[in-house]
Write a structure and sequence with these properties.
The complex is a heterodimer.
Chain A: E1 3-5, E2 9-13, E3 18-25, E4 32-37, E5 44-49, E6 53-57, E7 60-65, E8 70-75, E9 84-91, E10 97-99, E11 103-108
Parallel strand pairs in A: 2-11
Antiparallel strand pairs in A: 1-3, 3-8, 4-5, 4-9, 6-7, 7-8, 9-10, 9-11
Chain B: E1 4-7, E2 10-13, E3 19-25, E4 32-38, E5 45-51, E6 57-58, E7 67-73, E8 76-81, E9 90-96, E10 109-110, E11 114-118
Parallel strand pairs in B: 2-11
Antiparallel strand pairs in B: 1-3, 3-8, 4-5, 4-9, 5-6, 7-8, 9-10, 9-11
């Protein structure tokens, strides 16, 4: 079966750095998305990785290792507004999106 | 980036009535749109893939006759929840990819979401 694993909840301190991991087992691979979702709102696109390596975009970076079936989202200089759920999603060989359950990130002052 | 607009944002209806949710791509043409449902504290679940000019493709377990999808133009897809019941109360979200002009980055653009409450 297809599976996406990410931690259910993480807590970090304002101004710090946090890394949210995502591991996947899917039938084929055509890219991996990270989305941010605040409670009651639609997801917001953060990043898309299809090749191995690190993609940096401001305070957020995303890393992919296809051989390991592994990705992480790195958030730097955390702000209170970063408190949200972070969703990892993989595009499989049929171009279907397989979603993780999301990681709820709690930022403390 | 491309803009997807969803309407209404909130809807409350009585059990047994039907509700229509619209999803529009405002500045690009979307031959394919996706409809998701999200129950509280759960992940997004793909319900169906909406294809312009043809029948939608439904995911396993999603009732075609209950969740009617119409994608009559390149900028509009509608989801109608027929004979809604309280268990249909959920957050419904649409998304689309901008495939035009070689701009496809794989990014999905989401609508704002529609929260349905069935009394």
């Amino acid at each position: 079966g297809q599976n996406i694993d990410q931690p259910t909840e993480m807590t970090a301190t304002e101004g710090a750095i946090v890394q949210i991991n995502c591991t996947y087992q899917t039938s084929g691979f055509n890219g991996l998305f990270w989305y941010q979702q605040h409670a009651g709102e639609a997801p917001t696109f953060l990043s898309y990785n299809v090749l191995d390596g690190l993609e940096e975009k401001g305070r957020f970076s995303s890393f992919l290792s296809r051989s390991k079936g592994y990705s992480y989202l790195l958030l730097k200089e955390l702000q209170m507004k970063d408190s949200a759920s972070y969703l990892c999603a993989v595009v499989d060989s049929n171009y279907q999106l397989i979603w993780g359950a999301g990681t709820k990130l709690i930022i403390k002052p | 980036g491309a803009v997807v607009s969803q309407h209404p944002s909130w809807v409350i209806c009585k059990s047994g009535t039907s509700v229509k949710i619209e999803c529009r791509s405002l500045d690009f043409q979307a031959t394919t749109m996706f409809w998701y449902r999200q129950f509280p504290k759960q992940s997004l679940m793909l319900m169906a893939t909406s294809n312009e000019g043809s029948k939608a493709t439904y995911e396993q377990g999603v009732e075609k006759d209950k969740f009617l999808i119409n994608h009559a133009s390149l900028t509009l897809s509608t989801l109608t929840v027929t004979s809604a019941h309280p268990e249909d109360s959920s957050f419904y979200i649409c998304s689309a990819r901008d495939l035009g002009g070689g701009r496809d980055t794989g990014e999905l653009f989401f609508g704002e979401g529609s929260r349905l409450t069935v009394l």
